[in-house]
UniProtKB/TrEMBL annotation:
One of its GO terms (molecular function) is ribosomal large subunit binding. The lineage of its organism: Bacteria, Pseudomonadati, Aquificota, Aquificia, Aquificales. Pfam families: RsfS. It is found in: Cytoplasm. It comes from the Bacteria. This is Ribosomal silencing factor RsfS. The keyword Repressor applies. It comes from Aquifex aeolicus (strain VF5). Signal peptide: none annotated. The gene is rsfS.
Length: 109
C-alpha cells in the first residue's frame, strides 16, 4: 500500500491527471495492481516516466522494465507486482483499461 501511495504522490507531483489504482490481483497474474494516469502530451508522459523511474530507483524499488517511452502515447512501467500505465488522453480513451478491468476494485490511497 505504501508503494501505491508513493507512486500516486510522485505522479501528482508532476501534474499527472485522473490517477486510478485498480486491484487486479483476483483477475490476473500479471500484477496485483494497475496504476493508470493521464499525461497532457507525449512529452509530459515521457517526463512522468523518467521522474518516476528516477525516484523509485532512489528508494530501492525495482523496475523490471519500461515500454513505450520512444512514442510516449502509452508508457508501461512494470514493477512486478504493480504496473503503471501512463497515457495521453486520446490513447487512454481508445484502450479503455478501466472498462476492460471493470471488475477490478478501485483503490483509495
Amino acid at each position: 500500500m505504501e508503494k501505491l501511495k508513493l507512486i500516486k504522490e510522485l505522479l501528482e507531483n508532476k501534474k499527472a491527471e485522473d490517477i486510478v489504482i485498480l486491484d487486479v490481483s483476483k483477475l490476473t497474474n500479471l500484477a496485483d495492481y494497475f496504476v493508470i494516469a493521464t499525461a497532457n502530451s507525449t512529452t509530459h508522459a515521457r517526463a512522468l516516466a523518467d521522474y518516476l523511474e528516477e525516484e523509485l530507483e532512489k528508494r530501492g524499488i525495482e523496475i523490471d522494465h519500461i515500454e513505450g517511452k520512444d512514442y510516449g502515447h502509452w508508457i508501461l512501467i512494470d514493477l512486478i507486482d504493480t504496473i503503471v500505465h501512463i497515457f495521453t488522453p486520446e490513447t487512454r480513451e481508445y484502450y479503455g483499461l478501466e472498462w476492460i478491468w471493470a471488475d477490478a476494485k478501485k483503490m483509495e490511497v
